[in-house]
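Hi R.,

Here's the chain you asked about this morning:
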Amino acid sequence: MKRRVLSPFFLLCIVGGLAIFSSTMAKNPALPLFIRSLGVSPGTVGFVAAASTVVGIVISIPAGILSDVIGRRKVLLISLVVFATAPFLYLLVRDAWHLVLVRVYHGLATAILGPVAMATVADLYDARRGERMAWYSSATMVGRFLAPTAGGLLILGESFQWVYLAVGVVGVMALLVALQLPRLKDATEVSTEGASAQMLQSWQAVRQDLAVLVRNSRLLATSLVEATQYFSFGFVEVYLPIYLFEQVGLAPWQIGPLFTGQIIVAAVVKPFSGRLSDRVGRVPMITAGMLVCATSVFLMPIASSYAILMLAVAFYGLGLATVTASTSAFAADLATATTHGAALGTLSSIMDIGHSTGPMVGGLLVGALGYQIAFHYVAAGIAAVALLYAWRVGVAQRAPARSQA
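And the predicted structure, written out as tokens:
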């Protein structure tokens, strides 16, 4: 009987779902509570938590470029090795600086996986690219929405060992599935003698294409929006659990489902948002999603009941899905077929600047102004960037149409 082979896209969705389940369970809601258990002050928690996302600022662009040169599968497997090994290092942490080192190593995994997996989807699909990217993202969100509830249940008192053992098991599973991936986009075979010269030529060509991408104002503006979105996401995922645990008095098992609800909404909405962005345009969808997120963040610290808090957090998931379904597709639209990795690496790198500065700047705001005002400042920032983006990029897109009229 002939063995049925799963499609590369389906395997990629399974890998992404398992990998993101593993990495999300490592940090939400466990990480900020773990950091606090090590005696770190609330204002400093964000700097420790951001260690992994800082890695993305440096790694995402080279990872995307490297996948353009040597092939997607090889680079994906590098990230999956990190997913499979990093979680077990958390069991050795005894001080905050130990945790920083582990988070830096663990951050390599997501910094590589994000742009390279999206570049792979961009290679496989053209006309339905936004929809397929959204379906892949939704597959990762299945892992993301299961993780907070599972992680919250595995926190026993001040013991976090069961959380990180589970994270390691799932990371190993992701690696085993990734090994089944066929060749995706591999570099041209060359002789041993010509390998160095071929690699140098490839790098030079990609650097030239990357220079063009960096000069693309719409790509950079879209990356800024993505950075702002993830600034708020980084702030919320670190400081909302601490606020709810220490100020409101919720237990970890109650906090986890809030984030599960958020990601369920995002997973359900994202494919439809991606399809809608293919039809009505990226900029209107990005702007609308940002304004939804701003409203949600404003409401989080003033929710009067658990049910209203759940709605506010879920509403954030709606905005998150609407924004991210369009930003990655827009970045791919603005790139050439040979530089999808570079374009999405650029987007991911700038995104990580926002994701890492969210907890750090947020910690300073919390320390100086308190939780409620800090949340409201973040909400105002999201709204301001959304309106500026709609004005600048929206006008730039309409200008050619007006000139041809």
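The chain has one domain: 8-183+203-396.

Let me know if you need anything else.
M.
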